[in-house]
Amino acid sequence: MLIGYARVSKGDQQSNKQARALSEAGCKRLFEEKASGGRWDRPELHRMLDQLARRRHRKLDPKKRREIAESVLCGRKSGAEMARLYDISEPTVSRIVAEHRKKLETSRADQS
Fold this sequence. Notes:
Blueprint: E1 2-8, H1 16-24, E2 27-34, H2 43-56, H3 62-73, H4 79-86, H5 90-111
Parallel strand pairs: 1-2
């Protein structure tokens, strides 16, 4: 899931255009606020960063990793579809598939 952050500096400015552009780019969760860019005490920015940090540390169990890899390798789903389904990045899907492929090759080599 894409997350967006829209900020304007002045009270009379509107973040509508930024929010619309972020939504059109595929952001499902938007954080908006009116605050100076030079200030660090921006509550919505920190909420967004906290959410991103929690997502980064989430782990996929081996069963889900195998399901992702096999779905992509067998052509049932694309890497992009699996990324959206499991709310992970496409590079993460690629890494999972590469690791699974390597395990399969090692297993086949050990059997011969």
